[in-house]
Amino acid sequence: MSEDAYIKLVPGSEKETITLDEVKELFNYYKEITGKTGRQVDWNYENSAFPYEIKETADSGGKWMYLHSTADRYNLILVGVDQEIIAHDSENERIQTYIQVTLPESSTFGDKGKANEFCKFLAKKLKGELQLFNNRVMYYYPRK
Asked: How far is CA 57 from the centre of its chain?
């Protein structure tokens, strides 16, 4: 059975909305900073930190992409962007953007570890609310 994690962009977040291209940019930034760390310690850390290729199919409509790996212990992670309507009470509603990270049945334990790492990175950068695969919630935005 597949598992899902969500990064929700709440009113206290860095941004109210995000596109799939912006998520790709964040992944590229992640690859860049891990590559710099690897150069500092003289180790090819970039390939270990992000052992995936970012791929998007023609029918995704700019809503989802997948991270595919040919490396040992890794296989597949799906990443999508969507919106939902949140009702505070009978009169107040707002549109909330979220990033969904899905581990299909073919994913490995290595994929789950990397997906948790990526989710925490994205939630921290965007100052969002992270609902992990085990349904626990981590708050990265300033709370009042």
From this structure: 18
- Decide if 15 is inside a domain: yes
Nearest Cα neighbor of 138 from 122, 126, 120, 121 is: 120
Instruction: Examine the pLDDT at 3 and tell me if it is beyond 70.
Output: yes
Q: Is residue 92 part of a domain?
A: yes
Q: Which tens digits make up the pLDDT trace of 14-73?
A: 889 999 999 999 999 998 888 888 788 877 777 788 899 999 888 888 899 999 998 889
pTM of the entire structure?
A: 0.89
List Cα–Cα distances, 46 to 9, 39, 52, 111, in angstroms: 28, 9, 10, 16
N- to C-terminal Cα separation, the chain = 37
CATH number where 114 lies: 3.30.310.120
Domain count, the chain: 1
Dist. CA 51–CA 47, nearest whole Å: 5
